[in-house]
Amino acid sequence: LGVQPLIGEHATKERVLAELKRGVSVIHFAAHGCEENGQIFLAPSQPSTTNNIPEEKDYILTMKEAQDSRIRAQLVVLSCCHTGRGEIKSEGVVGMTRAFLAAGARSVVASLWAIADEATMLFMVKFYSHLKNGESASRSLQQAMKEMRETEKYKEPKYWAAFFLIGDDVLPSLCN
Fold it and tell me: Gene3D superfamilies this protein is in (predicted)?
């Protein structure tokens, strides 16, 4: 897609928050998500030593921080376990998905449960290939699910049914 990803120790909370403020069409997170509330685990901003275990505030991207990020992305993809979860309140589910929508994202793809890394990677390759071919986010998601169902190894819903789209059905501009 013509971007330089933040990987491993370079994907610190501090750096990710700074990058979120850049005007980009698509933001993609591939990280661990907290099972309880979907918050995202990043690399600690401070290097850890054997005597210095990082505090959660140094590596967990909270709902408040996501909401305060004021992003301008058309699509945020949360390829992290449990990012579709949150606290159920009278106004709906309050979690990372809602936080990114409140921050300015037009739509969010998230997951309801943990999926094997290999299956997630294949799903996302299929999803992005459809986006890159000019299909909308909902159509790309639907096609990725269909293609996963058609493979022998990943036909079971546990490998593809966790992903959902909320917000507008965007047609993000991607580099060709």
Answer: 3.40.50.1460
